[in-house]
């Protein structure tokens, strides 16, 4: 890995999200969020967020880890239901928590970069209709204003919403995430309102201070055809429009892509929710934050059981490919490598996909600053008898992805930062605690933190970058 190929001033950081690490779900006046009840019945092996990595109580230790790492920047998220437990009334204890955290980060030389919303809607806002309703975007604008006023003297980089498109489809059509609705029109409404929330949040933050750097964190997967069948090429473009570009074009260009806006399965749902002036409100960003994990490989549904295709992708059971209902609705499936004991299905590293993502974004939108807001690898890490976690696979993974960024920079992209997902092992939503993403191992029984080999390696990369 050649970190020297990254531009001067390139920032190295890590990312987390409130619900995945904080725990303390009923402490100091925090109100319930949609995941609290949801995971009580749907958590993987019963895993839930009640304690998580207990970051709410151990934040000082975690800030010390960031300081030891030498991170330039730390992408954290605030819990909306800790700040506004009933969706409306500020909770001074919750605000105080983020105050202390931000102060400690700054004192440790780590720049805080705050995500306002990372999938943890207050239950009180969900009860009033959640993202399927426009009012939620308006509530979000008020929440953004509150945090801008409270933390804006110290926090200068802000992320509005995290992965709006995935949240909309997983929560409102796949039935996988809360509120587990299965209704394509509601999913489209949810996406539109999440994007509107971005726009309202952007406006509230920029009103507080024009110099704030504000943008979204968008899940991006470069999308390719699975075979050279012309139908797959067409479908790959269609799926890219309905996934990647449907959440980015409105923010950058102020329009939905035609292939999405006019699609017979989307047009009437959009007609119902898009009001005059919405796209002007949504359009606005200072950078593009992208979360990259793995690419998408698109296959026509009718070819999913072809023996040759099944053999090419090593699928013993063709039903493994047809998981995502919102792609199936378009006649497509996403072909993914199967899970093994060590890996969650689909999580096969493909670093070139990060170069492809950044290059595609730069080609489509011109010289827009790009921040890699998430990238990481789930592994079943363990501490060996010497108390060490040897996660060489993660070291290779980070090195290869940093090289992939350097390659995109060489090809003309303006990439400013890399936030590794994640600082510490945490609750991986529906996958619970089994697979670990952290640079720091967390023993969830004792909450003991042990920096993994990757932590020490990444610290060295950062040290070298500082001395360049
Ligand atoms: C999300 C994180 C999640 C990570 C790994 C992203 O989709 O923003 O919350 O833990 O991916 O799945």
Which secondary-structure class do the elements indicate?
A: alpha/beta
Distance between the termini: 15 Å
Number of helices: 18
Mean pLDDT: 95
| Sequence of strands across the biggest β-sheet | 1-2-3-4-5-7-10-11
Largest sheet, strands/sense/barrel = 8 strands, parallel, barrel
Using only C-alpha atoms, the radius of gyration works out to: 21 Å
Shape: globular
Helix-residue proportion: 40-55%
Strand percent estimate: 5-15%
Name every ligand kind in the structure: beta-D-glucopyranose
Low-confidence stretches: none
Beta strand count? 13
In short:
The protein has helices at residues 18-21, 34-42, 55-69, 80-83, 92-107, 123-127, 134-151, 164-172, 184-208, 230-253, 258-261, 267-273, 278-282, 307-312, 325-328, 352-365, 392-410, 453-467; strands spanning 11-15, 73-77, 111-117, 157-162, 213-219, 223-225, 288-291, 296-300, 332-334, 370-374, 415-421, 440-443, 448-451. With 468 residues, the chain is an alpha/beta fold.
């Amino acid at each position: 890995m050649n970190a020297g190929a990254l531009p001067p001033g390139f920032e190295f950081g890590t990312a987390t999200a409130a619900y995945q690490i904080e725990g303390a779900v009923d402490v100091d006046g925090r109100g319930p969020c949609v995941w609290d009840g949801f995971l009580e019945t749907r958590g993987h092996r019963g895993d839930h967020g009640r304690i998580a990595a207990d970051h709410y109580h151990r934040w000082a230790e975690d800030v010390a880890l960031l300081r030891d790492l030498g991170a330039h920047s730390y992408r954290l998220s605030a819990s909306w239901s800790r700040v506004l437990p009933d969706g409306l009334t500020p909770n001074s204890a919750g605000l105080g928590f983020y105050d202390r955290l931000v102060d400690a980060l700054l004192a440790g030389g780590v720049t805080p970069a705050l995500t306002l919303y990372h999938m943890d809607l207050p239950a009180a806002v969900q009860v009033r209709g959640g993202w399927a309703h426009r009012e939620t975007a308006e509530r979000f604008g008020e929440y953004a204003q509150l945090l801008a006023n409270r933390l804006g003297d110290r926090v200068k980089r802000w992320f509005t919403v995290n992965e709006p498109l995935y949240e909309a489809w997983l929560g409102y059509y796949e039935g996988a995430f809360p509120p587990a609705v299965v209704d394509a029109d509601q999913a489209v409404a949810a996406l539109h309102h999440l994007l509107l929330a971005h726009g309202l949040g952007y406006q509230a933050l920029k009103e507080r201070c024009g110099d704030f750097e504000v943008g979204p964190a968008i899940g991006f997967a470069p999308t390719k055809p699975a075979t050279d069948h012309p139908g797959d090429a067409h479908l790959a473009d269609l799926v890219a429009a309905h996934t990647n570009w449907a959440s980015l074009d409105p923010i950058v260009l102020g329009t939905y892509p035609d292939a999405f806006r006019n699609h017979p399965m989307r047009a009437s749902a959009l007609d119902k929710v898009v009001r005059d002036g919405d796209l002007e409100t949504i359009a606005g960003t200072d950078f593009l934050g992208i979360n990259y994990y793995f690419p998408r490989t698109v296959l026509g549904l009718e070819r999913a059981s072809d023996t040759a295709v099944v053999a090419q992708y090593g699928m013993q059971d063709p039903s493994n490919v047809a998981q995502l209902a919102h792609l199936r609705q378009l006649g497509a499936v996403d072909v993914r490598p199967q899970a093994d004991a060590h890996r969650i299905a689909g999580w096969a590293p493909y670093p070139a996909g990060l170069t492809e993502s950044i290059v595609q974004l730069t080609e489509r939108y011109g010289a827009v600053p790009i921040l890699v807001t998430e990238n990481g690898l789930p592994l079943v890490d363990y501490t060996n008898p010497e108390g060490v976690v040897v996660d060489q696979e993660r070291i290779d993974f980070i090195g290869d992805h940093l090289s992939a960024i350097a390659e995109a920079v060489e090809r003309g992209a303006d990439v400013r930062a890399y936030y590794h997902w994640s600082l510490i092992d945490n609750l991986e939503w529906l996958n619970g605690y089994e697979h670990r993403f952290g640079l720091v191992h967390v023993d969830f029984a004792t909450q003991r933190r042990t920096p993994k080999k990757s932590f020490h390696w990444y610290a060295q990369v950062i040290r070298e970058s500082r001395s360049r």
